[in-house]
Design goal:
The protein has 160 residues and is mainly α. Helices cover 74% and strands 5% of the residues. Helix 1 packs antiparallel against helix 2.
Length: 160
């Protein structure tokens, strides 16, 4: 799984995961401090996961890397929404800490039961699409070597 024909998968997954966690935490921190969700953060999460995947793949990008970036961008957005819900729920119940609520099974279950409520506005969908586009396009733009061009050039006869 780690490396096949020069494609690194393991490290880009770790990079995408780190970016998703950082992006989700930043989303929640901004929402908590402003008491408003800033949709542009979703685009930044997409960009951050795309950049992390590129960085951890040593700039050798294949389609699988773009898919990894998109998946982790979506997970980062989901985490940001979840942590925002946890923060505001902890504010309602002042005697329960945010960390305690974050791992509470009932909160997690309720969040996923009502998840469509958190993504029901058209503007939410717009920012999610823009995050996906960022996560998909950044690896392609930052790639040092496109693996498809490397493979196709190795199939040709050497030039004298």
């Amino acid at each position: 799984m780690e490396e096949k024909q020069g494609i690194r998968i393991g490290l880009p997954i770790i990079g995408g995961l780190i970016a998703a966690i950082v992006g989700g935490a930043v989303w929640a921190a901004i929402a908590a401090s402003t008491e408003y969700e800033v949709g542009l953060i979703a685009i930044l999460i997409g960009a951050l996961t795309g950049y992390a995947v590129v960085l951890f793949s040593n700039k050798r990008i294949a389609t699988v890397h773009k898919i990894i970036a998109v998946i982790f961008a979506l997970l980062g957005i989901l985490l940001g929404k979840y942590l925002t819900v946890v923060y505001f729920t902890s504010q309602l119940f002042g005697d329960i800490g945010m960390m305690e609520l974050a791992f509470d099974v009932e909160i997690i279950r309720e969040f996923f039961a009502t998840i469509t409520d958190y993504f029901s506005e058209p503007i939410d969908l717009l920012f999610i699409v823009l995050a996906i586009l960022s996560a998909w396009r950044i690896p392609a733009r930052m790639a040092k070597t496109s693996l498809t061009s490397t493979v196709s050039s190795s199939d040709q006869a050497p030039r004298a």
